[in-house]
Design brief:
single chain, alpha/beta, five-stranded parallel beta sheet, 17 helices, Rossmann fold, globular
């Protein structure tokens, strides 16, 4: 099979590719490994199948005339019609092929059908919180670990909340973290969107992204965003599609038994990494709850639950709402609310959202995720578990 690694820029795809090369080098002749990075400025900007043929033929003649080939194509989306060349090379057994790309469109439409049945796709995300702990030298493998190390875990969660989980960001000095995050942010806008799609108005794109990230987790629509920014509807729709293609944002739909109504519902947008959200807005107590919700959304995605993930609001803007409902094998199996803290001012609202969803889906209860609180609440025969966000993220909720 062709191995395809996709995901946002700087999530670690190239590192995984090189780790696989190192693994192969232990049992194979290093001459059999060919790595090509299509972001290398020495390669033509209009690379095409002829470019790939030339590179492979030159490598065959100069380095590996007879041996097996393990071909690693990094950021292959810059090669025009790459999928047809890869399909042919795979079918003719010219090489075992590994691919990375920073666009979700890498395997969309005709591209996916072109190599259908020939590839295994792995989406690479910024670090989950458990991985983040490991990067920082803290292992949490069981409940005993969690209980014993909870103070350190909470301290590291504050860092994770503020700076996110991009691997290099975790490792750089404190005074460079925000600068590095902004560099990632601007590179994605300039390189992966403006340059790739032939756009010119950077300020317009940046303002749109900042608006979405400042209003993430809130119900929105292309119409409401275009109206708020006084932008053309089609332009906003296109720009949002580009942002989704680069993995910077993802969307969540309101659940409805009718797929047609689901697709017409208001959308909630979530950012792939809270480091980006904090880079373009201020971190203050009022929006920590939104950051928690964003982190929980990303955790569900990383657990592979994205296709069955929805929110539930049956009263429109300002109506009673359940933040996350989980659908598995056609039925709703779990309900979640997320807030920074349960207190007198929000208790009724948060519980009402869960009770509404419990009644609709005939479930016995749900979960509220908060900063530190941990208790069980029983209301009208429904059981609500309140758990710390760190317990949820490490899987001990």
């Amino acid at each position: 099979e062709i191995i395809v690694l996709t995901g946002i820029r700087r999530s670690g795809k190239s590192t995984l590719l090189k780790q696989e090369m190192e693994h192969l080098a232990k049992s194979r002749d290093k001459k059999e490994l060919l790595y090509i990075n299509f972001e290398d400025p020495r390669l033509s900007e209009d690379a095409d199948p002829d470019t790939l043929d030339l590179l492979l033929e030159t490598y065959r003649e100069a380095i590996n005339p007879d041996g097996e080939i393990f071909l690693f194509l990094d950021e292959v989306q810059y090669v025009d019609r790459w999928e047809k060349w890869v399909r042919t090379a795979h079918d003719l057994k010219r090489a075992t092929i590994y691919i990375t790309g920073s666009s979700s469109k890498l395997l969309s439409g005709e591209v996916a059908s072109s190599i259908s049945g020939r590839y295994l796709q792995v989406t690479v995300y910024p670090l989950r919180f458990l991985e983040f702990l490991s990067f920082n030298g803290l292992e949490c493998q069981n409940i005993a670990d969690y209980s014993a190390k909870r103070r350190e875990i909470n301290q590291l969660f504050s860092d994770y909340l503020r700076y996110g989980g991009f691997p290099k960001i975790v490792l750089v000095d404190w005074d460079l973290k925000k600068e590095e995050i902004l560099s990632y942010f601007n590179t994605i806008l300039l390189h992966d969107i403006l340059a790739r799609y032939g756009l010119r108005n950077y300020d317009m794109l940046k303002k749109l992204v900042e608006y979405i990230l400042t209003n993430d987790t809130k119900q929105n629509s292309v119409h409401s965003i275009s109206k708020a920014l006084s932008y053309n509807y089609a332009t906003v729709s296109d720009y949002i599609a580009y942002l989704k293609a680069t993995y910077m944002i993802a969307e969540l739909r309101n659940y409805d038994y009718s797929l047609k109504k689901q697709l017409r519902s208001d959308i909630k947008y979530y950012c792939i990494d809270t480091g980006f959200v904090n880079a373009v807005s201020f971190l203050f107590s009022e929006n920590i709850g939104r950051l928690y919700e964003n982190i929980v959304f990303n955790e569900f995605i990383r657990r592979g639950q994205g296709t069955g993930l929805f929110y539930l609001n049956e009263g429109g803007q300002g109506g009673v709402e359940c933040d996350f409902i989980i659908q598995e094998k056609g039925r709703i199996t779990a309900l979640y609310q997320v807030c920074y803290e349960l207190h007198d001012r929000n208790m009724d609202r948060e519980i009402a959202g869960l009770i509404m969803a419990c009644k609709k889906f005939s479930l016995p209860g749900g979960t509220i995720i908060t900063e530190h609180q941990q208790k069980t609440i029983e209301v009208d025969g429904f059981k609500i578990e309140v758990v710390p966000i760190t317990a949820f993220l490490v899987g001990f909720d």
